[in-house]
From TrEMBL, chain A:
<comment type="subunit">
    <text>Component of the ER membrane protein complex (EMC).</text>
</comment>
<feature type="signal peptide">
    <location>
        <begin position="1"/>
        <end position="21"/>
    </location>
</feature>
<feature type="domain" description="ER membrane protein complex subunit 1 C-terminal">
    <location>
        <begin position="733"/>
        <end position="950"/>
    </location>
</feature>
<keyword id="KW-0472">Membrane</keyword>
<feature type="domain" description="EMC1 first beta-propeller">
    <location>
        <begin position="95"/>
        <end position="379"/>
    </location>
</feature>
<dbReference type="GO" id="GO:0034975">
    <property type="term" value="P:protein folding in endoplasmic reticulum"/>
</dbReference>
<dbReference type="InterPro" id="IPR026895">
    <property type="entry name" value="EMC1"/>
</dbReference>
<dbReference type="Pfam" id="PF25293">
    <property type="entry name" value="Beta-prop_EMC1_N"/>
</dbReference>
<dbReference type="InterPro" id="IPR015943">
    <property type="entry name" value="WD40/YVTN_repeat-like_dom_sf"/>
</dbReference>
Automatic annotation (TrEMBL), chain B:
<comment type="similarity">
    <text>Belongs to the EMC10 family.</text>
</comment>
<dbReference type="Pfam" id="PF21203">
    <property type="entry name" value="ECM10"/>
</dbReference>
<feature type="compositionally biased region" description="Low complexity">
    <location>
        <begin position="66"/>
        <end position="76"/>
    </location>
</feature>
<dbReference type="GO" id="GO:0005789">
    <property type="term" value="C:endoplasmic reticulum membrane"/>
</dbReference>
<feature type="compositionally biased region" description="Polar residues">
    <location>
        <begin position="278"/>
        <end position="295"/>
    </location>
</feature>
<keyword id="KW-0256">Endoplasmic reticulum</keyword>
<feature type="region of interest" description="Disordered">
    <location>
        <begin position="274"/>
        <end position="295"/>
    </location>
</feature>
<keyword id="KW-0732">Signal</keyword>
<feature type="signal peptide">
    <location>
        <begin position="1"/>
        <end position="28"/>
    </location>
</feature>
Length: 961, 295
């Protein structure tokens, strides 16, 4: 009987989750999905013969994609794994010679089995171009050989492999193309050594740079005889100073050298003869050569002139004249040109036309043809680092709503159509029209705040240092800005973006002031590099304030304090653990000094396995201009490095709101949640098991989970999982932690939950205390009190491995929570927290069932309908962000990776509002019909009554007579 | 149930008897070094209950070395507690004594922690008083490894000085250990610490210390109960069926309205003949009148 009841309950649960899933026609109403590819590294154009106007690109996000040349849309795309870096792409069955890690022979014939040579280090692989099988494989040397160039003279069965051994010896191998046999080998050592790559100048000359990067070394290897010839660069280019770099090029007889201020093109006439062809001033970029015929090759040079770009196309036979000269105008937010790829086409008048594919500094991709930008792709969005949200402006008076809304007639027509749809009277055309109206709803794309708070701006920071504001309605870019301070400059060599925070959120003056965000970066990857600080207007993208800090940035702590202008106070901890207060105003300092005794912070030193807690103190006089505070070490936790290494730390979200501290359990009992903003979850693993799954046996793998109070440094709970190892993902919310890891003993992934309850407030349950006012419910809680906590925990098996985890957040915290799990299939799964309740038991009692406790199962169920991303995939999923809205039942979910996906979900369904497609017209019609029916029946009854009265009167009169 | 319990009791006594008799039969030549420890042998280190000992003058404080010194199983270790009043340097404050037990599988655990605190000197008392006045931090530290102290890192822990005074200075240590390593010390007042903290001096300037030693516990494992569930299902189908309810208990809600309807119909039927009779009489009266009218 109990089993049947359980089953019934399960069926009920499943049916309830089914009803929360989307219908097909609801896709795209509240969600949007955008596909990106990332910053393009290589591009190969399909040749004319194939007839398809496509370009194949490989990117820094490890994506190989084919783009439509006309529109820039993705034709197909493959996202490879994190460690599957693409070094080079080439088309084997076209006419496109390359001389890099990959060698596809130029004289390939379609249909014939040709060999593609792939090389790296001292290995050469020959692959069949028809099926990709390895035909032969040859290790040329056991020494530390680095093959630099592989090339094949036309119509010959041998090829040359050229390389350096230990950067000081030049080697040339003559290898049989068919079987990889080394026919001849010659060596010569060069005493000052080589640096970087070698560039092939002609069929028997290679040019390289020496170790000091001030000499060009031409190496001739004709007939197995190697000779060196050095050229001092300042002799050639008088204004040269510093160090030169050889640009990788595929030119015949032309060499591109990057000196600090410009790019110099040199022609190699012989072994000892170098001639300057052209000097191109920065900022500029040069494309590879494009062979047009046997003798002629073309190359493109792009040069910046403020917001304009000059494009020049030249033939290598005559470099002084341009074949094509165009100028395009760009908006200022794309930065410099980073890479250029050139392609030709035949014009209607049978001459050569050229188009160029341009990769910009902000990772966007442009196609330029006939002096115009044909299309652009905002591919910086494939590398989002951090995001935040901002409210839209309040609807101001004077801005007419009617302009945005449909006319009344349109509105009526729309509702009439909807009504027809509801009553199943609509024709297929009309159904399509209804769908179109729903998708293109003006309501969701307006640039003002809405009643429910669904419309917001998502402000994202990309790796290129660009900030973009996306509208939640349709995901369009509202504004974008490439922060000047985050671009490479003399003061800041290697800028690196870190985070974006909310800086100012005006409430009192919301009509007049715009909110702003704070962007934090660092000049270089080291912790001691100076920090970058920039404040950007959230509505317009205007940069208010931007500076390179004098100190470094280690942590940034947004404080829950605001100054009189509603700017949030932030503490920046530098590399010396000094704390700097921002904004640097006396007002902010005054507010902060009041709260300073209650400010605590901690640092996790992953390498040293130490967590330390600090407070702040002022040593000597406080310098009001600098606002620097010193740390005071309060506590430390040292994990024994021979048995544990820190794998992960997680904390609660600062802005999370908890509705109730009490949890009512079965039998009208109450448990008090231990709710502290200072809980830190730490997971440590055995040092042996810190690698990949399978690197350790179950006996030598373990995982410890800790709950630590970061004010007092107390370990509130410590638990071990034997035979478990990472990768670990965790999420902390309210009084619970859920973490995901791999169980080596069970060969399965597992999810554990820890819930922590406060026992010290247990005596509040006494009603008499409450009546007499002797309870301590309103007393402030101190972290220094001895904690009296109980912990409940449970583990469940989970099918998927996880990429990212998050939890839903709502405005008041009343709605039940769902875990959002980014699965290995790049989808987002919503899992009800009730499934991860540690109080689940195999046979719940009647009262527990009433409370909603699900019978215990071995593993967590995965309901296909509960995928938030429904049929879509967020390729390369990296993060999931949840944002509460004004409507309590709803959460906004933004997930990002290579793709972006946004939707809104209601974990307990929208219990507090009507759905958007609710038919008001039907309601109106029903009311009208009811009123009409009321009137008619009333009139009828009146008439009948009148008739009755007449009859009665007649009767009476008859009686009278 | 009762019978099974009885049976198991009998079995238990039998087996113990058997064991005893074997022990009686076999003259063990094994040297029992420490009876107390023997009882614990084979127990899991993680299952060790936390020990809570309010420390008064140590009873067996330094009596440990009189154990067989060459014992591989357990030895006594000492490590010192140091304290700091606000910004000044650390000074010794007391000594922890514990027994280090070695297990057959190679692990080592600390047990039987004892603590003796040094009495506060006048100078320290002054420093503490100053700390109370300015609501400063009272910081303690212990070495992170009890064996080669103080060669390694220190574990710090701090508390607001005003949290400590009650009648005497009450302090509470929870020492988290992992083998011979100390990972963290939860140090604080023995009870609640009110906020805002009031300035209060203790009646007695001496420490009352409570110490607890904690090892990690194993996470509860998900039971594999799928089989149990299936087995249970077969048994249950045959088992107790809910008692059949009586007809009246099941359908009373339908019966009552039915009775009402029947009653209503009956009363109507009772009234009908009278009404009909009355109606006929009126019609009889009316008929002539109409004829009169027509006229």
């Amino acid at each position: 009987m109990a089993i049947r009841a359980c089953l019934g309950l399960m069926i009920l649960l499943f049916s309830s989750t089914i009803s929360t899933a989307l219908f097909e026609d609801q896709v795209g109403l509240a969600d949007w999905h955008q596909k990106y590819i990332g910053k393009v590294k290589h591009a190969i154009f399909h040749t004319q013969k194939t007839g398809r106007k496509r370009v194949v690109v490989s990117t820094e996000e490890n994506v190989v994609a084919s783009l439509d040349l006309r529109t820039g849309n993705i034709f197909w795309r493959h996202v490879l794994g994190k460690i599957d870096c693409i070094d080079q792409v080439d088309i084997a069955l076209g006419k496109s010679p390359s001389k890099s890690l990959l060698h596809a022979p130029a004289n390939m014939n379609v249909g014939k089995d040709n060999l593609i040579l792939v090389f790296g280090g001292s290995l050469i692989h020959a692959l069949s171009s028809t099926d990709g099988q390895i035909v032969w494989r040859k290790e040329l040397s056991t020494n530390s050989l680095e093959i630099q160039q592989v090339f094949q003279p036309r119509d010959s069965d041998i090829f040359y492999a050229l390389g350096f051994i230990d950067s000081s010896e030049f080697v040339a191998y003559y290898v049989n193309y068919k079987n990889g046999e080394v026919l001849q080998q010659s060596k010569a050592s060069f005493k000052s050594g080589f640096c970087g790559e070698a560039s092939l100048a002609s069929n028997d000359v290679v040019v390289a740079l020496d170790a000091s990067r001030t000499y060009l070394v031409s190496i001739s290897f004709r007939n197995g005889v190697i000779t060196f010839q050095q050229t001092y660069i300042p002799d050639l280019i008088p204004e040269f100073s510093g160090k030169a770099t050889l640009l990788p090029s595929k030119y015949n007889g032309i060499l591109a050298v990057d000196i600090a201020s410009s790019i110099v093109l040199l022609r190699v006439k012989g072994v000892n003869e170098l001639e300057i062809i052209e000097k191109i001033n920065y900022p500029s970029a040069i494309s590879d050569v494009l062979p047009l015929s046997k003798e002629q090759q073309a190359l493109a040079i792009l040069q910046h002139d403020e917001s304009r770009i000059h494009i020049k196309v030249k033939f290598d036979t005559d470099l002084t004249n341009e074949v094509l000269k165009e100028t395009i105008q760009l908006d200022g937010q794309r930065g410099n040109v980073e890479k250029v790829f050139i392609n030709n086409y035949i014009r209607t008048d049978r001459t050569h036309g050229f188009r160029v594919l341009v990769v910009m500094e902000d990772h966007s991709l442009l196609l330029v043809q006939q002096g115009e930008i044909v299309w652009t792709r905002e591919d910086g969005l494939a590398s989002i680092v951090d995001s935040t949200t901002s409210e839209l402006p309040v609807e101001k008076e004077g801005v007419s709503v009617a302009e945005v809304e449909h006319s009344l007639f349109e509105w009526l027509k729309g509702h009439f159509l909807k009504l027809k749809g509801t009553l199943m009277l609509a024709s297929p055309d009309e159904v399509a029209a209804i769908q179109a109206i729903r998708l293109k709803s003006f309501e969701k794309n307006k640039m003002t705040r809405d009643h429910n708070g669904f419309r917001k701006l998502i402000i994202v920071l990309t790796r290129a240092g660009k900030i973009l504001a996306l509208h939640t309605g349709d995901g369009r870019v509202v504004w974008s800005v490439l922060l000047p301070v985050l671009r490479e400059s003399e003061t800041c060599g290697n800028p690196f973006v870190l985070n974006v925070y909310q800086w100012q959120v005006p409430h009192h003056r919301a009509m007049h002031e715009n909110p702003s965000v704070l962007v934090i970066g660092r000049c270089g990857h080291n912790f001691d590099a100076p920090g970058i600080f920039s404040i950007v207007d959230a509505y317009t993208g205007k940069v208010h304030n931007s500076l390179v800090l004098e100190h470094s940035v280690r942590h940034v702590m947004p404080l829950p304090l605001t100054d009189s202008t509603e700017q949030h106070l932030h503490i920046v901890i530098d590399d010396n653990l000094h704390a700097h207060l921002y904004p640097k105003t006396s007002d902010a300092v005054k507010i902060f000094l009041d709260e300073m005794p209650n400010v605590y912070w901690y640092s996790v030193e992953v390498g040293k396995n130490i967590i330390k807690g600090y407070s702040l103190e002022i040593k000597g006089e406080l310098d009001m201009a600098e606002n620097v505070f010193q740390p005071k070490e309060l506590w430390s936790i040292v994990f024994p490095s021979e048995s544990e290494t820190i794998a992960l730390t997680a904390t609660r979200k600062m802005n999370e709101i908890v509705h109730t501290q009490a949890k009512i359990v079965a039998d009208q009992d109450v448990m008090y949640k231990y709710i502290s903003k200072n809980i830190l979850f730490v997971a440590t693993v055995a040092p042996k098991a810190s690698g990949e799954i399978g690197s350790a046996t179950p006996e030598e793998a373990w995982l410890y989970a800790y709950l630590i109070d970061t004010v007092s440094g107390r370990i509130l709970h410590r638990v071990s999982h034997q035979g478990a190892q990472g990768p670990i993902h965790a999420v902390v919310s309210e009084n619970w932690v859920v973490y995901h890891y791999f169980n080596l003993r069970a060969h399965r992934h597992e999810m554990s939950v820890i819930e922590i309850y406060d026992q010290s407030r247990e005596d509040n349950k006494d009603v008499w205390k409450l009546v007499l006012g002797k309870h301590n419910l309103t007393a402030p809680i101190s972290s220094y009190s001895k904690p009296d906590v109980t912990v409940k925990s449970q583990s469940y098996f989970f099918t998927h491995s996880v990429k990212s985890m998050a939890v839903t957040a709502t405005a008041k915290g009343i709605t039940s929570k769902q875990l959002l799990i980014g699965t290995i299939g790049d989808q987002v799964l919503a899992l009800d927290k009730r499934f991860l309740d540690p109080r689940r038991s195999a046979n719940p009692t009647q009262s527990e069932k009433e409370e909603g406790i699900i019978p215990l199962t071995d593993s967590l169920p995965i309901v296909p309908q509960s995928y938030v991303t429904h049929a879509l995939q967020v390729e390369g999923l990296r993060g999931i962000v949840t944002t509460p809205v004004k409507l309590e039942s709803t959460t906004l979910v933004f997930s990002y990776g290579v793709d972006l996906f946004f939707t809104r979900i209601a974990p307990s369904r929208t219990y507090d509002s009507l759905t958007e497609d609710f038919s008001y017209a039907l309601l109106l019609l029903t009311i009208v019909a009811l009123v009409a029916a009321l009137l008619v029946t009333w009139a009828l009854s009146e008439r009948k009554e009148l008739g009755e009265k007449w009859r009665y009167k007649v009767q009476l009169s008859v009686l009278d007579e | 149930m009762g019978s099974s319990r009885g049976r198991s009791l009998v079995l238990f006594t039998l087996s113990t008897l058997l064991l005893v008799s074997i022990a009686g039969g076999l003259q063990s030549d094994e040297l029992l070094q420490d009876d107390e420890e023997f009882g614990l042998e084979g127990g899991r280190p993680a299952a060790d209950p936390a020990l809570s000992i309010p420390t008064r003058p140590p009873i067996r404080g330094r009596s440990d070395p009189d154990l067989p010194s060459g014992s591989p199983d357990s030895k006594s270790v000492q490590f010192s507690l140091e304290h700091r009043f606000g910004g000044s340097g650390f000074s010794p404050a007391g000594t922890f004594t514990a027994r280090l037990k070695s297990w057959s599988h190679g692990g080592q655990t600390l047990t039987k922690l004892r603590f003796s605190r040094n009495a506060l000197t006048e100078e320290e008392k002054g420093a503490f008083e100053r700390l109370l006045k300015e609501d400063g931090y009272y910081t303690i530290r212990v070495p992170s490894n009890v064996l080669n102290a103080p060669g390694r890192d220190f574990i710090f822990s701090s508390v607001r000085a005003r949290c400590i005074p009650r009648d005497s200075l009450d302090e509470h240590f929870v020492i988290h250990t992992d083998g011979v390593n100390i990972m963290a010390v939860n140090y604080g007042s023995a009870g609640a610490c009110q906020y805002p903290r009031m300035l209060k001096y203790p009646a007695k300037w001496s420490f009352t210390s409570f110490t607890v030693l904690k090892n990690s516990e194993q996470a509860p494992r998900t039971p594999t109960f799928a089989e149990e569930l299936l087995a249970g299902e077969d048994g249950l189908v045959e088992g107790v069926k809910p008692p059949e309810k009586s007809f009246w208990a099941k359908y009373w809600m339908y019966l009552i309205p039915l009775v009402f309807i029947v009653l209503n119909a009956m009363t109507q039927a009772m009234n009908m003949p009278e009404e009909q009779a009355a109606g006929q009489s009126t019609q009889a009266q009316r008929a002539p009148s109409t004829t009169v009218r027509r006229r």
